[in-house]
Amino acid sequence: MELFTRIDTLADGKLDFKLYRYTPSFPAAIVATVIFAILSCLHIWRLTKARAWYFIPFTIGGAFETIGYAARIISHNNKESVPAYSVQAILILVAPALFAASIYMILGRIIISLRAQHLSLIPVRWLTKVFVCGDIVSFSLQAAGGGIQASGTIEAYDRGEKIILAGLFVQIVVFGIFVITSGLFHRKCLQNPTLAARENAFPWKLDLNVLYTVSIIILVRSIFRVVEYLQGNGGYLISHEVFLYIFDAVLMAIVMIVFLIWYVDHLQYKDGNEYDLEPCVVDETNSS
């Protein structure tokens, strides 16, 4: 097995290109659709109840996952259907970028709620904007690449594949910088806690650990997708459906479950408009 395989040429000179190199599993698609539908409905309920509007992109991502796997049900009966293939390929591909958008917004609100703006590597006023803009670039590239592939020609597939890879690389880089930024803030806040951090006004340490967990999970999924696309249409990963479910469906379901169990809806400034609050630093001489 070669690690990187492109579109092969058959003995008669024709290109060996297929939308699917297997028949999509009907039971697996049904189970995935039901699970993501349930998780999405639960997130809609929690979102409206908590009025934590920064979870809107996350919830839309869950809907994308649901529709994407529902399209694979259609593909089971007609795996030559370009529309069904395109819907599942694009929506399942870009859904994690929507998850990421909410994750980026949560960090800024944690920092603001702790009144710890002075400890952030990136000014809080720009923090969410920087990461969400990077996420938009990643999302746009992946969606554009998927849209180009949807034309159904081999040339378009190859061109779209390169654009998707660029989007995935952007996502990995942005997520990496996000994790580093979160980690540096976490360390600084432990070393020089604000009053809110010292008094544990809310479970900020748990919130950050949740962000680390889901970020790493999405990073693993993105790396899998990069390798999958680098291998090409005839690659080992894309030719075996099980990898899609292990490294994408299961991981993204875990991300949604994690945020259901530890729903970050207790932040003081849910609207994110309190950027100009003065930081509240603990006076060590008075607190000792």
UniProtKB/TrEMBL annotation:
Keywords of this entry: Membrane, Transmembrane, Transmembrane helix
Subcellular locations according to the entry: Membrane
Record membrane topology: Multi-pass membrane protein
GO cellular component term, pick one: membrane
Manganese listed as a keyword: no
Segments passing through the bilayer: 26-45, 52-74, 86-112, 124-143, 163-185, 206-224, 244-264
InterPro entries named among the record's database cross-references: RTA1
Pfam families in alphabetical order: RTA1
Major subcellular site: membrane
Protein name: Protein RTA1
